[in-house]
Amino acid sequence: MNDVNPRPPADPPPLTASVVFRLGTLGSVVTARFTEALAALGLKPKHVGLMVALDSGAPPSQLELARTMAVAPSLVVALADHLQQIGAVDRVRDPADRRRQVLALTGTGRALLADCTALARRLDEELTASLGASEREALRRTLGVLGVEAGLPTGD
Amino acid sequence: MNDVNPRPPADPPPLTASVVFRLGTLGSVVTARFTEALAALGLKPKHVGLMVALDSGAPPSQLELARTMAVAPSLVVALADHLQQIGAVDRVRDPADRRRQVLALTGTGRALLADCTALARRLDEELTASLGASEREALRRTLGVLGVEAGLPTGD
DNA sequence: TATTGTTATACTCTATAACTATA
DNA sequence: TATAGTTATAGAGTATAACAATA
Questions:
Q1: Which fold, A37-149?
Q2: For residues A141, B13, A69 and A109, what is the CA-based torsion angle, rounded to 10 degrees?
Q3: Tens digits of per-residue pLDDT, A44-68?
Q4: Among the four residues A46, A63, A126, B52, which has the most C-beta atoms within 10 Å?
Q5: B143 closest CB neighbour out of A22, A120, A123
């Protein structure tokens, strides 16, 4: 009762217990699954990112989109090239400033984005199947809060 | 009260509301931060992954480590080369089967891993500063559950 | 002949830099 | 001269394939 060493010195939580580690590793696994599923639609995650940005009303010039997405402008060119090729976006020169290319989702693009959304929803169900409804919602909500703080698009 | 359209057709939750999207994007942001912080220690995330695997008692041959980490054996060679160079791991031929290289964390390696852990803890605090203690724990725990299901190392 | 580790090579993703057209 | 977009090039990260040593 007045032991010199009442309890063994509980070793500190390991790296694997940190939110950073768990979020990073699980995010990578989940992104790999999403990437694989997207392949059936001929898309990569960044294509989806561009469509999401357009859909959520981001300024539609390529350079502004690059800033929004935090990627290089040259990458937006490649992403837009592909999305235009499959008819998912329109790309028109801004008549007011003919240097600018203004991107816009087409009907096809919106349908494609809806397909991606359905796909994500299906993966969500698989991923969170073992969680209770309230746990799942708490997770979604907390991730949303942290996402907003990190400047990520987080509609709801 | 018997309206034809009692409520506007609530449009379905957007892609950005999915756990898959939020986990993927936030994971990527968090990993970027961790990567940046690790640079001060001369490490990349995969080096940490290898140390974590060794620390948690994974079978220590390079090929088995490659399987554990789900990376190519050639990558383990490069990671082990670097960790050995900085004195973080010992690499000895298994006398029972001289084809095998057996890796083991050194004292230096354990200290380095502790530094990485401290670093993750600091990032955790920054990341989750806006969350209440119970929210933060719920997040950590739920991520742990999903991580275990995905086969990730998740000590606690 | 099969397996472990290593080396050589190639591929994917993305950025930086050089360039063109427009302002 | 500065800016939007494009093209050319390069780098990081990682895998695949060929190879060497050991079983």
A1: Arc Repressor Mutant, subunit A (1.10.10)
A2: 170
A3: 999 999 999 999 999 999 999 999 9
A4: B52
A5: A22
Query: Is B124 within 8 Å of A18 when comparing Cβ atoms?
Result: yes
Contact A139, B142 (CB under 8 A): yes
Q: Flag whether pLDDT at A7 surpasses 70.
A: no
> Do residues A31 and B26 lie in contact, with contact meaning Cβ atoms separated by under 8 Å?
no
Which phi and psi angles does B42 have, rounded to 5°? 75, 25
| B window 116-135, beta carbon within 8 A of A | 116-117, 120-121, 123-124, 127-128, 130-131, 135
Other Cβ atoms less than 10 A from the Cβ of B93: the count is: 11
pLDDT tens figures, B73-91: 999 999 999 999 999 999 9
Non-local (6+) Cβ contacts of B18 within 8 A are A117, A120, A121, A123, A124, A140
Question: B36-124 maps to which CATH number?
Answer: 1.10.10.10
Neighbours of A40 (CB within 10 A): 9
Interface test with A, best of B11, B19, B35, B148 (most A CBs within 10 A): B19
Closest residue in chain B to residue A32, using alpha carbons only: B24
- Decide if A17 and B123 are in contact by the 8 Å CB cutoff: no
Q: Is A53 helix (H, G, I), strand (E, B) or coil?
A: helix
The residue whose two tokens read 């290898």 is: B50
Mutate to test the interface with B, among A130, A143, A148 (most CBs of B within 10 A): A143
CB contact, 8 Å: B45 with chain A? Answer: yes
C-alpha torsion A35→A37→A38→A42, nearest 10: 120
Interface check A111 vs B, CB under 8 A: no
pLDDT band with cut points at 50, 70 and 90 for residue B5: low
